[in-house]
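This part of the workshop introduces the protein records we will be handling. Getting from the letters to the C-alpha cells is the skill we practise here. The record below serves as our worked example for the rest of this section.

…
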Amino acid sequence: MTSSADRWAGLALHPVRIRILRSVAGARRTTRDLAAALPDVPQATIYRHVAALVAGGLLDVVEERKVRGTVERVYTLPAHGAALGPADLADANAEDHGRWFTAFVSSLLAEFSRYLSRDRIDLVADGVGYQQVVLHLSDEEFAEFAAELAGVIAPRLANRPGPGRVARLLATVLMPAEPASDTSSAAPQPAAEPATGSPDDADPH
C-alpha cells in the first residue's frame, strides 16, 4: 500500500508544484493569482498541477465564485499543511531522504537560476547570500540554538503579502559535519570568505 510519505513525495516533489504550494502557503489563491505569481509557467500547466494537488489532498478548495460566467475556485493549504509529518519522517529510509533532499536542492538551484536570469541583479541590494558554517555545539547548546532560531523565524511566518513586503526565500539545512582533522600543530590558515549568491523565486516546468 502506498504510504502518505510516498503520496506526498509523488505529488509535491515537482518544481512547479513546489512553487504552487509555496505561493499558496499562508494565503488564499486563485489560479489567476498563481498565474500572476508564476508568469513563466503556462496557465494550462498551472491548472493541471493544481488539479493534481487538489485530488491528492495537498490543496483545499475553500471558496467557489462566479466570475464572468465561469466558476473561480480559491485554494489554501489544508489544515494539516502540505508537508511530511514526524511519523512519515521517522518511517523514511535513506533512499527516501536521498530522493527528497535531491528534490529540495534541485528546487533551490532552479530558484537561484531564475534570480540570475533577471534583467538586473544586485546581491547586496537584494539581500541575497549563501554560505556554509560549522557550529560546534553540545546537544544542549544545539537545542538552545534551535529554539532561538525558531523564535526569530516563527513570528514572521504569519506576515501576509503587502506593500513594501518582498517575498524572500529562506532555506535551511542542518546535518552532522565530518570532524575536522587535527591541525592544532599546523600553521594557522586564514578563514575562508563565505560565498555570496542565493535564491528568490523559480523552477523549470
